[in-house]
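Progress note, sequence design subtask.
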């Protein structure tokens, strides 16, 4: 009896967690269905809220809040991570031009180290909502609840499902990328303009060689594991000197 030889079955390489998430996000449809539910329930000013930079090792976390105009259809809105930089810039300009209101807020690295990145992200989102004028009466928030009085709906993968949250994601991403490009000129050895402060091989190599800057998040493991003396800005020295001069003189007993 002839034996049957089975050819080996090649297995597809396992996807990384980030690649798997991107694949999932691409399958989701970004629509106005959550906004429509809010409008039908009586809300008139529905704001989408999102943050960018939560996983970065450097700099601030940036949040945005956007109230879209129900009478104007902004096409092409989706999670900012799925858009090319040039497309994000175009959409950001349209959002700023046609939205009822939009606002951006940021929490810096020092505050992130004090209260942790989760709380800092919530704080930045709350601040963005507080800066909106007119004030919203309903919030659609990406994944979390924030300390605001308005009725709110947290939506998992909200930036890939809700047009308002996607708009906020785009504004926050464009603003934070702009900030990272500016800091790249100050710290050229770290490549901030290319990776925006995230944990890439190039960034980690720079941390091992040069150590963290004063604007790296000291509470993040890849940063505190490379404790090379940090660069201190001139204005920081001047501020310390001013504070020393302002201290009252002690009276000898």
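Output:
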């Amino acid at each position: 009896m002839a034996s049957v030889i089975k050819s080996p079955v090649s297995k597809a390489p396992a996807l990384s967690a980030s690649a798997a998430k991107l694949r999932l996000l691409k399958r989701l449809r970004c629509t106005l269905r959550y906004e429509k539910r809010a409008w039908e329930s009586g809300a008139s000013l529905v704001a989408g809220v999102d943050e960018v930079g939560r996983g970065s090792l450097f700099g601030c976390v940036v949040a945005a809040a956007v109230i879209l105009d129900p009478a104007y259809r902004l096409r092409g809105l989706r999670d900012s991570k799925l858009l090319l930089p040039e497309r994000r810039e175009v959409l950001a300009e349209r959002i700023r031009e046609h939205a009822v209101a939009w606002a951006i807020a940021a929490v810096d690295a020092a505050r992130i180290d004090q209260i942790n990145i989760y709380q800092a992200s919530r704080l930045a989102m709350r601040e963005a909502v507080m800066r909106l004028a007119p004030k919203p009466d309903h919030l659609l928030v990406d994944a979390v609840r924030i300390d605001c009085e308005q009725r709110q709906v947290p939506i998992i993968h909200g930036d890939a499902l809700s047009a308002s949250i996607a708009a906020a994601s785009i504004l926050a991403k464009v603003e934070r990328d702009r900030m990272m490009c500016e800091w790249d000129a100050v710290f050229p050895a770290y490549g901030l303009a290319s990776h925006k402060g995230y944990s890439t091989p190039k960034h980690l190599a720079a941390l091992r060689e040069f150590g963290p800057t004063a604007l790296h998040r000291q509470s993040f493991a890849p940063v505190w594991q490379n404790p090379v003396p940090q660069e201190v800005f001139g204005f920081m020295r001047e501020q310390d000197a001013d504070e020393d001069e302002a201290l009252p003189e002690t009276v000898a007993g």
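Residues 7 and 211 are 51 Å apart (CA to CA). Work on this subtask will continue into the next period as scheduled.
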